[in-house]
Amino acid sequence: MSTIPAAKVERWQRFRDNRNKALAARHGWLTLTSFQWLERSPAAVEQAPGMWSTDGTTASLTAVPADGLFLVETEQAVDGTVTAALADEESLMWVRFGGTDGTQVVVELAMRGGRYAIRTRDAVSPVCTEFRGVPTYGYSPDWEVVGRFEPYPEPVDVPIATANPLVDGIHRTVGEVLFRVPGSPHEMRLQAEEEKLGALTVTFHDETNGETTDDWRKLAVPRPRPDGSVVLDFNRAINYPSAFTPYGTCPMPVKNNSLDVRVEAGEKQPYPAGD
Q1: Taken in order 199, 177, 189, 234, is the CA torsion positive or negative?
Q2: Which of 142, 132, 128, 138 is nearest to 13 (CA)?
Q3: Which residues of the chain have pLDDT under 70?
Q4: Which of 47, 63, 100, 170 could form a disulfide with 78 if both were Cys (CB 3.0 to 4.6 A apart)?
Q5: d(Cα 192, Cα 201) in Å, to the nearest integer?
Q6: To 5 degrees, how large is the angle CA 67–CA 69–CA 74?
Q7: How far apart are the first and last CA of the chain?
Q8: Cα 6 to Cα 11, 13, 222, distances in angstroms
Q9: pTM of the predicted model, to two decimals?
Q10: Full strand arrangement of the beta sheet holding 59-63
Q11: Do 186 and 240 meet the contact criterion of CB atoms below 8 Å apart?
């Protein structure tokens, strides 16, 4: 009977502890309480004071001191009109308010699909304060597999959908990761995006989606070795923020990134069915 190396389990547990800690961060993903598009005419929004608008290239906020809004970056009170401009897919933790010290809620400005939106992040949201960690499958060394990376000559931009039906996305595919997994007789491949320092990310569907796992998950893959080999540790497959909140604009997998097996490794659905 084989045993699982204790060192691998310990490393995985540290990964899980750090992951849960990051999710529960103040004003992190578990604190999202709204997503609202900005309109051209100044208007009030839900869950934040002030009057908000955009001319298409710049976002504007008009407030008075009694609104209790402060710029996150400079700590200055908003008295009058302030503006900010972002490129597509950029975000800015713009202003804060609320609570005994004025820091309970942060309003994030975001540019998504060429449109400005705001998201409120409330540090005392029950989703965050009642968080006790993401349920996962137990660690299994069988789900740590070696594959190979086949880069494309040039990156290819592939249109994709996102968790928000009003926001379209782009997957900049830099190549494909090929590998075999437990329970499958054939080689599989996933289109990958490149991250910092040459690491990769693969976003995928599998046969557990909608049952024990969210509709899709992602996996960080370390930088390919000189011979092109890569290690895919599906024990570290994680949910996108959209698994925890309806206010995410997370990218869906590209059309071909579906595995015809049950990847019983990594994070599960964060909430019971129907919750």
Answers
A1: negative
A2: 138
A3: 1-2, 272-275
A4: 63
A5: 6
A6: 155
A7: 39
A8: 9, 10, 22
A9: 0.90
A10: 43-45, 48-54, 59-63, 80-84
A11: no
Which token pair is 270? 């964060």
Residue 86 near residue 111 (C-beta atoms within 8 A): yes
The pLDDT score that the predictor gives to residue 1 is 41
The tokens for 123 are 């540090």
Structure-block tokens of residue 153: 């000559």
Give the tokens for residue 74.
């400079």
Query: Side-chain half-sphere of 120: how many Cα atoms within 13 Å?
Result: 17
- pLDDT of 260: 93
User: Helix, strand, or coil here: 54?
Assistant: strand
Phi, psi of 101 (to 5 degrees): -115, 10
Amino acid in the structure at residue 207: E
Residue-level pLDDT at 185: 85
Query: Position of tokens 């972002």?
Result: 86
pLDDT at res. 272: 61
Torsion of CA 71, 75, 80, 82, to 10 degrees: -40
